[in-house]
Backbone:
């Protein structure tokens, strides 16, 4: 991870992947790393990210009403530990926004107030003002299903998109904000409406300028889904082909059967390309 230098987006991606990789046995290999390199900021960051994932495994994916009280106790205790680990990682590498961006997940679970969240956000943006992963995480905090409202989430996304330079992928953030309200059935803007088409087009333009951005697959999954639903099958299939093999992204991440959900929409895009080609051929005949 030291090879990432100040490529904070890539560092965030690697830390999350390594933190997730340990499963329930994460302390064993992380502790071996720490013994080999005491005070290493990379090891401290991976320990913290692993602890965040460890906490959310205790929480599980069920609604709060269906989650046992003992799971919540372990969840909150693990989040407090994760927050301490994140603060330690931040001290070891003061320029790094990654520990602060990762703290958004403890902020969700522990119920940070708006003032606490804004204080955390200030720490992030003074180090990396256009950090996609941090914005993506913060959008969850400001959404109606967590600590904010759909209006707050939309305003946050639009402000970030307006202020961001091309190639940061933040032009796609309003599309993600729209999808959250669409999923909650609190949005009257249909997926094939002019407004949502414009959101998809803005995301596509930013993708073209963001070649090599580590978060590009997240955006490609969302635009591929929307393009398919909008009947723009050839464009959708191009993005599906670019991300094949990985489905840990929206919109599939909210589905019970992620791979099946992905496969269904991708198949619809492929069939749509064939159908569109046949129709064009018939019109020319």
Residues:
């Amino acid at each position: 991870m030291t090879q990432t230098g100040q490529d904070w987006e890539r560092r965030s991606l690697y830390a999350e992947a390594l933190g997730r990789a340990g499963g329930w046995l994460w302390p064993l290999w992380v502790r071996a790393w720490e013994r080999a390199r005491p005070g290493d900021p990379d090891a401290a960051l991976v320990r913290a990210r692993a602890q965040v994932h460890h906490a959310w495994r205790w929480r599980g994916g069920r609604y709060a009403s269906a989650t046992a009280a003992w799971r919540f106790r372990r969840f909150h205790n693990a989040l407090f530990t994760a927050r301490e680990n994140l603060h330690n990682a931040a001290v070891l590498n003061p320029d790094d926004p990654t520990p602060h961006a990762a703290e958004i997940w403890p902020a969700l679970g522990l119920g940070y107030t708006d003032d606490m969240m804004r204080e955390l956000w200030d720490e992030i943006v003074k180090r990396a003002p256009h950090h996609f992963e941090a914005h993506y995480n913060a959008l969850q905090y400001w959404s109606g299903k967590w600590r904010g409202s759909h209006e707050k989430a939309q305003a946050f996304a639009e402000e970030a998109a307006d202020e961001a330079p091309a190639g940061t992928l933040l032009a796609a953030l309003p599309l993600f904000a729209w999808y959250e309200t669409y999923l909650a059935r609190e949005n009257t803007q249909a997926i094939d409406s002019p407004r949502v088409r414009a959101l998809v087009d803005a995301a596509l333009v930013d993708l073209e300028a963001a070649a090599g951005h580590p978060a590009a697959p997240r955006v490609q999954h969302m635009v591929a889904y929307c393009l398919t639903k909008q009947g723009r099958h050839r464009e959708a299939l191009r993005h599906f082909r670019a991300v094949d093999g990985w489905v840990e992204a929206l919109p599939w991440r909210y589905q019970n059967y992620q791979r099946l959900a992905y496969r269904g929409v991708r198949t619809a895009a492929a069939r749509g390309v064939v159908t569109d080609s046949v129709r064009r051929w018939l019109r020319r005949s």
